[in-house]
Design a protein that fits this description.
This protein has 11 helices and 11 strands. The chain is an alpha/beta fold. It folds into 2 domains: 160 residues, D-Maltodextrin-Binding Protein, domain 2; 119 residues, Periplasmic binding protein-like II (D-Maltodextrin-Binding Protein, domain 2, 3-Layer(aba) Sandwich), CATH 3.40.190. A 6-stranded mixed sheet has the order 2-1-3-10-4-11, with helices on both faces. Helix 2 links the parallel strand 1 and strand 2. The longest helix has 28 residues. It starts with a helix and ends in a 7-residue tail after the last helix. About 4% of the residues have low confidence.
């Protein structure tokens, strides 16, 4: 009987030790199966290029396939719903913060819980541009807004995200400028109209307008980045031109479930940072109009909160209340 008690006691201790070590064991072996990156943008976008470059590198590092799924539409809501609905810690949201930070001001009720988008790793900052048709003969923001003031209601504009849309609306409101907003379901249509001179101000990622700029159909009059960059020679930022209220950084990164273990987040963040140190990946991202800006979950969260605070001020100017208040 004594031997039996000793055996049972030893078994219990072994089971307890295994139970206590299981979370650490799982953290060390994550991922245990295919990882999915769900993107709110289509193939060929800056975020898509970054996701696919990282997917290839991380698949080797993790020993598991990393699949990129494009779910464009609904200003990011289609992709967010797919990510949240998966309920899977191997499914991650990969995209710009502009895909969702404006949602509380654009919807009376959010179709998802904002807490479900928990920052894991910052990847890059997409260069965002303000461009005009070359045929308009405008070379700066000052010229553009002077033309808008001289002929109220004649010039129009379009922006491809809810966040930048609100920022420009706020500026026009404060400045007393009358420019007509043109809503587009498909950003490609806006690009075509801008190139043909039917759209006068187009606020979009540099990667989207780059080909038309090189073709001579569009001219970039400003970049909205908070910091100057040499990636687009000869083009000043909105801040450098005296329009700091139009500043907006295209933060891109990876998000996971709010209940994902910190050890997993740290591993993903560290591995992403290691992958982004590859000169070949940096060159490809730079060519697609992105500034490589790796950061931890805390870095990424702080950057997003700064954007949220700025957008809250914008919404206040427009008299818009947040759905999350």
């Amino acid at each position: 009987m004594t031997n039996l008690k000793r055996l049972l006691g030893a078994s219990a201790l072994t089971l307890l030790a295994f139970t206590l070590s299981a979370p650490n064991l799982m953290a060390q072996t994550w991922p245990q199966r295919t990882v999915r990156f769900i993107l709110p943008l289509g193939a060929g976008s800056g975020a898509d290029i970054g996701a696919r470059l990282l997917a290839e590198k991380l698949a080797v590092r993790w020993g598991q396939p990393v699949v990129v799924e494009n779910r464009p539409g609904g200003d990011g809501i289609v992709a967010i719903n797919a990510f949240v609905g998966a309920g899977d810690d191997h499914v991650l949201f990969f995209g710009p913060s502009s895909s969702f930070i404006a949602h509380p001001y654009l919807h009376d009720k959010l179709p998802y819980d904002p807490r479900d988008l928990s920052p894991i790793a910052r990847v890059s900052s997409t260069l965002v541009s303000i461009s005009v048709p070359t045929s308009l003969g405008i070379h700066s923001l000052k010229d553009l807004f002077a033309a808008a003031r001289a002929e109220p209601g004649k010039l129009n504009w379009a922006s491809i995200t809810g966040a930048t849309d609100l920022i420009l609306r706020s500026y026009l409101h404060k400045s007393g400028l009358n420019m007509v907003r043109v809503p587009y379901r498909n950003p490609v249509e806006a690009l075509s109209d801008a190139a043909k001179g039917r759209l006068h101000l187009y606020w979009a990622a540099y990667a989207i307008v780059q080909a038309q700029v090189q073709a001579g159909s569009l001219k970039i009059v400003a970049l909205t980045a908070s910091e100057p960059t040499k990636l687009v020679p000869g083009v000043a930022t909105v801040g450098q031109q005296g329009y700091p209220d139009l500043t907006f950084d295209g933060l891109v990164g990876i998000f996971g479930r709010h209940d994902m273990p910190n050890s997993w987040r740290e591993r993903i963040s560290t591995d992403v940072k290691t992958a982004l140190a590859d000169p070949a990946i940096q060159a490809r991202l730079t060519a697609s109009g992105q500034v490589v800006a790796p950061g931890s979950a805390a870095d990424f969260a702080a950057s997003i909160e700064k954007q949220r605070a700025a957008l809250a001020e914008v919404a206040n100017v427009l008299g818009i209340k947040s759905a999350t208040q």
